[in-house]
Design goal:
Shape: flat
Radius of gyration: 16 Å
Number of helices: 5
Distance between the termini: 42 Å
Largest sheet: none
Number of strands: 0
Length: about 100
């Protein structure tokens, strides 16, 4: 992965997670909604198996998840981490807005 692609991807994931997290926190009247949901979404993207297998074939599904998580490249880890940072920042912004008296919905 080239450096410009990596930098643009980092920025896009940060902004995307921040925006979705901000709107979700505002609509659901929570503060850390996206921070909790984001890792679940990432696992669903990375694992490449049906989610129902976690309930029907638990040990097999978790071993596949472990294998796939260890196979993720360093560039992808950086990009996905920037999305998590964006989700955390959306919670911080919502928290500070609420402390300053702003009420969303």
């Amino acid at each position: 992965m080239s450096i410009p692609v990596l930098l643009i991807s980092i920025l896009l994931f940060f902004v995307l997670a921040f925006g979705i997290g901000f709107l979700a926190n505002m609509l659901f009247r929570t503060t850390w909604f996206m921070v909790v949901i984001y890792p679940i979404i990432i696992v669903m993207i990375v694992d490449k198996i049906n989610t129902m297998k976690y309930f029907t074939q638990t040990s097999n599904a978790f071993s596949i998840l472990k294998t796939n998580l260890l196979a993720v490249g360093m560039g992808d880890v950086i990009i996905l981490s920037s999305g998590l940072i964006g989700a955390i920042m959306s919670g911080v912004v919502i928290l500070s807005l609420r402390k300053n008296g702003y009420q969303m919905f």
